[in-house]
Every structure is written in C-alpha cells, then in structure tokens.
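Tokens in:
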C-alpha cells in the first residue's frame, strides 16, 4: 500500500500500537502503522556482548534518548523540582524492546479511586470490563506466572509456568513469611517454555537491554509478525510531524517525514495515536491549526497535563551469604502487594507494591546505582566490592503516583529533533502524599531485608526514573475533565483515538504495559463495532 487511504492509521508501533494493529487486522480492517524507528536486529543487543554492562551505559542502547541519540530518537527536556529521568525506546516494538517485562494487572480498586478514597477520578471503565482483554493480551504476548495470587482477582492458568524465583526470591520470600506479609511469584512477559513459535527463556539474564532469542514479550516478536502476516502495513522511518485535519475538524491522516526526510501524507478514515505518554501529547500539541489553535483534542487544556510515572525507591540489603542475584531473567522474581490498598491510618492514600528483581553485573556494583552510592575508589574499593558482590538483595518500592495538573508535558520553545519538530519538555514534582507513601514503603522494605537476614541496608532515597509514561490525555466521561472517552475516542475529534498510557486516568501501583495492551485490544473491538461511523 503506498499512501492509499487506510481504514485505521496507527502512529507508533510499541505495546499499544502493536496490539491495536493486530486486533484490527484480525477483525478485517486495513491498517497502516507509521513508526519513526526501525526493526532492531536482536544480534545487535548489548545483552549478547561480553561488555554489555559498559555498552548499556553509553552508546545506542542507553535507556535515555538524550544520551543514546539515535537518529530516530527525539530529545526530551527534563524539568521541575524532581526532574524525571525519561526513558523510552523508539523502534518497532517501542519501549518493550527495553522493558523489564514485569506483567502485573491493575486491581479492581484502581479504577475507582475517587469513589473509594476520595482522590483523583474514577476511570469510566471497570476492571471486569477489561478482564477478558487482559486474558487475551496475556495469551498474545506470552506470560509466565502462577494463578492463585490471593491479592488479585482469579486468573486463568498462565500461558507458561512461572520462571524460577532463584535464590533472591527464596531469601526474600522467607523474609516476607517471617513478617506474615503477602508475596507471590511475579508475573512476567517472559515465556518459561516454548510458546507460540518462540523459545522459552534460557535464563541468561540481561532482558532489559533486549532479549536475543525472543523469549521476552517485546511487541516486535509477539504482535507484529502476526499482524503483518494478516496484512497490516508497517512503515518504518516514518516520523509523524502532525495530524492533519479537514475543514470539518475531523482527522484526515498524518503528515510525516519519510526515510529520506521528505514530507508525505498518509490518509485514513480513523487515526489512532500510540506514541506513549510523552510522544502522544507532543504530537497533539504539535498538531495546531486554525480550528485547533491550542493543539489537537485540547479544548479541555488537559493535553500533556496529569503526567504520572510512578514513584520509585530501591532498597537493598547485603546478605551475609554469597547469593548471586546477577543471574536469571531480569523481570521480577517475587512481588508483594501487602500495602497496595488504602489504609487511612497510614497517613496517605493509595499504596505501593514491592518488586524483587535480579541486580545487574559486577560493574554496576562499582558504579553508583539507584540503591547504592558508587564504591569508594582507592584502597577501600576492593574490600567494599567484596562485601557487596555478589550479595545484594534488592527490593524496588513502586508507589502509586496520583495525577497533578502541574506535572506535565509541553513543547519546548527551543529544542527540536533532527527533523526540526519541537521536542517535549516534561516537568515533574512528587506530591506530599507520594513522599509519605514512599517513606512508609522504604521503611517496610528495610524490615523485609532485615527479616531475610541482611546485615547492611543501602537506600538511595526517592528517584525519578520515568519509564512508565501515563496520564497526559486522560480518559473520562466529562469532556471538561478529560481528553478521551471510555473508548479512547477524543472528545473533540470523533475519528481520533488515543490509545497508549496517556489515556490512563490514574496510574495504580503496578507496571502499566499489560493494562496498555488490554486497553488497546478493547479499543480495537470498540472501533470495529462502530465502523459504520467511519466515512
Ligand atoms: C527500562 C524500561 C523498563 C521497563 N520495564 C517495564 C516493566 O517491567 N513492566 C511494564 O509493564 N512496563 C515497563 N516499561 C514500560 C513499557 O516499556 C511501556 O509501558 C510500554 O512500552 C508503553 O507502550 P506504548 O505503546 O504506549 O509506547 P512505546 O512502547 O514507547 O511505543 C511508542 C512508539 O511510538 C513511536 N513514536 C513516537 N512518536 C512518534 C512519531 N511522532 N512518529 C512516529 N512514531 C512515533 C516510538 O518510536 C515508539 O516506537 C519499561 C520501560 C523502560 C524504558
Ligand atoms: S533471561 Fe530469558 S528473557 Fe531475559 S534475555 Fe535471557 S533469554 Fe531473554
């Protein structure tokens, strides 16, 4: 297909764009997807190289687009009292190339925080409406886990059995047990057995920087091969500059730079933006026109506002025994949701989860990490290194981040990408509720590590890794308080849909990607049911 008019134009090929394209193609729609990046050859991943720990700290696989500066990346300006450290990957599969692949679901309460806790807003949909799509997304992506977690609604048997929890999971499991707190084998988008034509994980353990065998469920190896087989068209090196609109204020298509930098227009009956919680508001704000002078779909003024990214703090304990937690799949070994739901007695609303993940390799022990400061250089270096390596048991506290309008994505007045398109700038500050919640979480993490027998505790304090990008085109029933409706349809532009993490009303206290995929599948069904409205 050249630039022939598509039924649905999907912009962005990450978790959301891939699921949406596959489902719509299965249903019979003619889908074209524009992606600014390219296919990544798994042989290029740093995870296959002996110097992988160096190559993830510099060069083309760094987590920050500001540092790796691939030609397809765009710069992100980071501002505010607590500047976010924005992380994403721009390629076929989007940030799932880099994600750690922990694959939990939201709780039913996450969709009703206004009703239950009097904060933020309720989602216009419920957990039970999304549940069949969570199941479908799990089957498409391939998940390893164990059904029966008492902190969550029942799930069908997981597509593959759980990954081994390893010595890290066993030690921390003992710590949680001593305290009588909930823990469960974590769910991961990493298949433990051959599944759906992909091989099972070989446990070599560097998943965050790309799985060389395709065991990790990145969208380039899950949804895309199937979508392409069914007829979806994926154009790479297609960087969208703006959404074009007609004189009636309907989306006409997208104007994009092709591989040579020339401008092209792709026309479509329906346009779906899936560029993530930073890229999507950037594109909407860059799509100004006479009819939409404040940016597309922005009559509420909320495009870019309510940016959420979760609060993070890593607390690590030095075990008296040598326990090599640098091996095994990155994912998450065990998780605890003991403090997930609101308990007003704690002095904050909503809650947090604990995630125990393997640590990186020896070089990461020497360099500063999220939990530990850099080792001293000089005489003390080797002694301190031997004290810590390989002995660190690490717990991440992941806190719910409630929406605040002042946390936002805007266009930077000066910085532009290599095509001259204004770059986003992201301003962020933690709320008082977040600080209290994370202080509580870090103190409880210390208790678990002590219960697990750790002798020294390292705590790097509250950080701002922004690898979960949410809320900047939020979903709701009221067009004055939200950007899209319950079907991801823009209140202002009826044939425009916003499908990625931007559409989240609230952020929950778990990782977002299984919810992003489930929402995209549900959105595809909603679009297809209403296809008579397509012109
Ligand atoms: C280091 C790291 C670890 C993570 N770990 C986890 C985890 O364990 N569990 C979890 O649930 N989530 C995790 N995440 C988050 C997860 O990767 C994202 O939630 C998910 O990929 C978001 O999906 P998306 O489709 O919204 O956006 P993305 O996957 O980011 O895809 C957006 C795509 O849009 C393209 N795009 C953007 N703008 C344009 C444009 N103008 N024109 C054309 N194309 C464009 C981009 O190139 C990109 O490919 C992690 C992320 C990172 C970076
Ligand atoms: S540990 Fe498993 S999922 Fe991770 S990179 Fe290795 S094979 Fe892939």
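Residues out:
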């Amino acid at each position: 297909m050249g630039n022939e008019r598509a039924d649905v134009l999907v912009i962005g090929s990450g978790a959301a764009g891939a699921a949406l394209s596959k489902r719509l193609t299965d249903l019979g729609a003619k889908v074209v997807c524009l992606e600014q990046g390219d296919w990544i050859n798994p042989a290029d991943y740093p995870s296959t190289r002996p110097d992988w720990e160096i190559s993830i700290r510099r060069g083309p696989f760094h987590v920050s687009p500001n540092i790796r500066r691939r030609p397809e990346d765009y710069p992100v300006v980071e501002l505010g009292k607590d500047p976010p450290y924005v992380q994403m990957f721009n390629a076929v599969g989007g940030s799932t190339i880099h994600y750690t692949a922990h694959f939990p679901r939201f709780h039913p309460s996450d969709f009703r925080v206004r009703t239950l806790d009097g904060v933020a807003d309720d989602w216009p949909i419920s957990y039970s409406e999304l549940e069949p799509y969570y199941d479908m997304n799990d089957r498409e992506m391939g998940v390893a886990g164990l059904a029966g977690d008492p902190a969550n609604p029942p799930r069908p048997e997981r597509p593959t059995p759980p990954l081994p929890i390893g010595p890290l999971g066993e030690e921390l499991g003992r710590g949680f047990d001593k305290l009588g707190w909930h823990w469960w084998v974590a769910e991961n988008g990493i298949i433990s057995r051959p599944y759906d034509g992909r091989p099972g994980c070989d446990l070599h353990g560097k998943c965050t920087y790309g799985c060389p065998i395709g065991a990790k469920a990145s969208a380039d190896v899950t949804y895309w091969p199937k979508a392409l087989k069914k007829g979806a068209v994926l154009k790479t090196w297609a960087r969208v500059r703006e959404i074009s609109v007609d004189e009636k204020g309907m989306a006409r298509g997208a104007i994009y730079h092709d591989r040579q930098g020339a401008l092209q227009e792709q026309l479509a009956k329906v346009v779906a933006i899936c560029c993530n919680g930073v890229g999507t508001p950037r594109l909407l704000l860059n799509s100004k026109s006479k009819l939409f002078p404040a940016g597309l779909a922005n009559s509420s003024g909320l495009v870019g506002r309510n940016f959420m990214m979760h609060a993070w703090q890593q607390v690590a304990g030095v075990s008296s025994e040598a326990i090599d937690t640098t091996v095994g799949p990155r994912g998450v070994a065990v998780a605890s949701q003991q403090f997930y739901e609101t308990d007003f007695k704690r002095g904050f609303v909503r809650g947090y989860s604990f995630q125990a993940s393997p640590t990186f390799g020896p070089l990461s022990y020497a360099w500063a990490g999220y939990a530990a400061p850099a080792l001293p250089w000089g005489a003390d270096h080797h002694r301190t290194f031997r004290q810590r390596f390989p002995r660190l048991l690490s717990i991440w506290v992941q806190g719910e981040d409630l929406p605040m309008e002042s946390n936002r994505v805007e266009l930077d007045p000066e910085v532009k990408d290599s095509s001259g398109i204004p770059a986003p700038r992201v301003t962020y500050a933690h709320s008082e509720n977040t600080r209290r919640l994370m202080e509580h979480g870090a103190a409880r993490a210390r208790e678990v590590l002590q219960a697990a027998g750790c002798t020294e505790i390292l705590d790097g304090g509250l950080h701002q890794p922004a690898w979960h990008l949410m809320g900047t085109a939020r979903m709701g029933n009221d067009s004055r308080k939200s950007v899209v409706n319950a079907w991801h349809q823009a209140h202002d532009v009826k044939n425009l849909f916003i499908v990625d993490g931007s559409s989240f009303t609230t952020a929950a206290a778990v990782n977002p990607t299984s919810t992003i995929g489930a929402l995209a599948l549900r959105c595809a069904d909603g679009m297809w049911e209403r296809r008579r409205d397509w012109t």
